Amino acid sequence: MACARILYVTVILVSMALDNVARRIPLLPPCDFPAIYNFGDSNSDTGGISAAFGRIPPPYGQSFFPRPAGRASDGRLVIDFIAEHLGLPYLSSYLDSIGTNFGHGANFAAGGSAIRRQNETIFQSGISPFSLDVQTVHFDRFKAQNTEIYHRARNLSDRRQVPRPQEFSRALYTFDIGQNDLVAGFRQLSTPRLRAAIPDIVNQLAAAVKLLYQQGARAFWIHNTGPVGCLPTATLYIRKAKTDKYGCNKDQNGMALEFNRQLKARVSKLRAELPQAALVYVDVYSAKYHLISNTKTYGFMDPLKICCGHHESNIHVWCGQRTLVNGSEVLGVSCGSPDSYISWDGIHYSQAANQWIANHILNGSFSDPPLTTITQACLKR
């Protein structure tokens, strides 16, 4: 009986201890991020490429803004939902000088951007000149100039338009880039050559993180690349692609998984190289693939269906464009219910899909190290 009583008490005490630990994890003090600085491509561009090369046309932006707002979607992007979650305004693009307010961060992302510089122009292949190294140069200039403006400002209202110098080290630095390196590689390189290029691509992203760390950045939120083989364009023009049961291009997804494997390992090494940094690796691939493989469960249509544009009988008119087909003008218009589609225009996700993805990564479900919320992203683990 005595042994049984001791065992019982021990179990109760251990259970209470574990319960206390479980209760303490969500009670960790949240990070008070005063700003976000984002680096990326069209998945997180809030107006950069639109400002640099011409306004993205209607019906982009129709579901929320309700006008074109520099975003390659019918509404908000994942980065917009991150800002909402942190109680911050939507990010203004660094490249957009009209109506911008950088008091709570800036967005250096630009549609078509890659990590590595590409030997192509945007007019040839849609690859942006604003590669990741250029984006970090923009940040360096932005920080220096805004710090100077802040110290020279004569009144409070002027200072509110720029970040306070001491807040750069407390901001969240987000990355969502790499997809265009793979897309360019699919077009330009053989599979062995592209695979051999991945270490250099990953190291260049790591070099960008190091540069920002040297500038005082400490909290990093790094997305891996999504399942590019599940984008409708991945199979639209490839007739003999090997596909999985959801219609995704298996070879392209396999390359994305290899990129992500190496990226995760490199982020792990960065934790040792940058001892004061908190680096969170976010498995966006798994979040997106889970949505794509469970569309009916979450109320979405076939993931390969495209909402905006005309794609029938091998005739493709892209979203917002118009062309003559057999003497008649065909418009790339929106579908009637964008919120039931995953793909907005064949390349980019709809606002509804972006919101689903954001909800499932902001709660830490796909983070390494594990978090209960993005507001813990400044805490070293």
TrEMBL record:
<dbReference type="InterPro" id="IPR036514">
    <property type="entry name" value="SGNH_hydro_sf"/>
</dbReference>
<comment type="similarity">
    <text>Belongs to the 'GDSL' lipolytic enzyme family.</text>
</comment>
<keyword id="KW-0732">Signal</keyword>
<dbReference type="InterPro" id="IPR001087">
    <property type="entry name" value="GDSL"/>
</dbReference>
<protein>
    <submittedName>
        <fullName>GDSL esterase/lipase</fullName>
    </submittedName>
</protein>
<dbReference type="GO" id="GO:0016788">
    <property type="term" value="F:hydrolase activity, acting on ester bonds"/>
</dbReference>
<dbReference type="Pfam" id="PF00657">
    <property type="entry name" value="Lipase_GDSL"/>
</dbReference>
<keyword id="KW-0325">Glycoprotein</keyword>
<keyword id="KW-0378">Hydrolase</keyword>
<feature type="signal peptide">
    <location>
        <begin position="1"/>
        <end position="22"/>
    </location>
</feature>
<dbReference type="InterPro" id="IPR035669">
    <property type="entry name" value="SGNH_plant_lipase-like"/>
</dbReference>
